[in-house]
Design goal:
Blueprint lengths: L1 E7 L6 E7 L6 E10 L2 H7 L9 E2 L4 E8 L11 E4 L8 H4 L9 H6 L10 E2 L5 E4 L9 E5 L3 E4 L14 H13 L7 E4 L3 H13 L4 E5 L2 H10 L3 E4 L5 H9 L3 E6 L4 H9 L1 E9 L11 H6 L4 E4 L7 H13 L9 E5 L3 H10 L4 E5 L7
Parallel strand pairs: 4-8, 11-12, 11-14, 12-13, 14-15, 15-16, 17-18
Antiparallel strand pairs: 1-2, 1-4, 2-7, 3-5, 3-9, 3-18, 5-6, 6-10, 7-8
Helix pairs in contact: 4-5
Amino acid sequence: MEIQAMLTTTEKDFERKTLLLDEPKADEVLVKIIASGVCHTDATVLDRTLPVPYPAVLGHEGSGIVEKVGSNVTSVQPGDHVVLGFAYCGHCDNCLDGNAGGCENMMPLNFTGKNKYGVSPIHTEDNVEVSQFFGQSSFSSYTTVDEKNVVKVDKDVDLRYLGPFGCGIMTGSGTVLNSLAPEAGTSFVVFGTGAVGLSGMMAAKIAGCYPIIAVDIHDSRLELAKELGATHTINSRNEDPVEKIKEITGKGAHYSFETTGVPEVTLSALRCLRVKGECATVAVGKRDLTFNVTNEIVLNAITLKGVIEGDAVPQLIIPKLVTFYKNGQFPVDKLVKFYELDDIEKAFEDSKNGSTIKPILIIDKEYTA
């Protein structure tokens, strides 16, 4: 079938094109895309930090409506509302242990442009294969995905807000709820109050952390962090965050969450911890970090862990997050600004300069909640 999509090539970041999409195989689902979040990971492909074969259709925070299902699909049916998550194999040790975010086949399934069959379902009109990104390529009007990529959600929730639940919001909240798993009353610090950081912070509030400290360089974002649950905020341009965090907590924080990828910030996220503290990082950084393992890690028995996709299984965490959203515990609508698909470059620019925390592209302008 013909679809409209934003094609990324070596010549242009984005160009609207008519492309061809394969019909779903027995274990695949055809989804009409309603909206798609813009994520920092998309930007890291554009700057070649994460190489994906071109031409490609990016986008990996899609939400939509099931159009057609393959003969073996049982979890969804036509008409269901769904959020699209990342691709995972479902049969490696980590997947079987309930940690799809640590799938041993994460890289080939999400970044090589091909699905588990070794092909992409997307092609140009000249039959040139187009890379599928994260198993979904949601900057398009329709997509054909593996059944494991789709998560059924309630029809009474506005689909336009839900796409980011499939990556950024899941990553932030899952890192806290699944990987750090803080006990109520423990102290928590987030470095970077973008969509991922604020999602982690809201999860820390749900977990009962206290104090909850947000660190950033933008006062406007810190004000929003207060509104969403931060008990304390620190502008690291004006104050030493390590000293201030230890002043607030007494012994240092139990948990820190680093989302920026800036080496100096990562060091602060380690040094602000108390003995036996834990730091989780999800960031994609460009610069190397050098530190003395004995001084920074061993002497205070610190744990530093990298987390992919919030150590989450999309089918388990996304419905929980949607419930939190419906209950007013997870007001992600306060992070969002909508853009038309043709304004995609503006959406990326606003994300980069920090004027919009979570841009969402409206793919289907006819949709109403």
